[in-house]
Design a protein that fits this description.
Number of helices: 5
Shape: flat
Helix content: over 70%
Radius of gyration: 18 Å
Largest sheet: none
Distance between the termini: 38 Å
Order of helices and strands: HHHHH
Structural class: mainly alpha
């Protein structure tokens, strides 16, 4: 947090890396399937209502609808 406040990008990036290392250590210790949990959360975020002025899947959804409207309609009808 101090590196961010001081606009020290190099130290801030180091702190972010340290945070990831610690999180991955916890994930390993607790035997969490982090890939499955991230996918689950991304799926939830993709369809949830707009929050804080943004939709997590909004950019992806617009691209999907533009490229293949039929597939997008099927996604909307899929059970969750």
């Amino acid at each position: 947090a101090e590196a961010y406040r001081n606009n020290d990008r190099i130290l801030f990036e180091e702190e972010i890396a340290d945070t990831f290392i610690r999180l991955l250590d916890i994930v390993g210790t607790l035997n969490i399937d982090i890939e499955a949990q991230i996918q689950r959360k991304m799926d939830i975020n993709f369809v949830r209502p707009k929050q804080h002025g943004k939709v997590m899947g909004d950019v992806v959804a617009r691209k999907l609808i533009k490229e293949n409207p039929k597939e997008a309609a099927c996604r909307d009808e899929a059970p969750r």
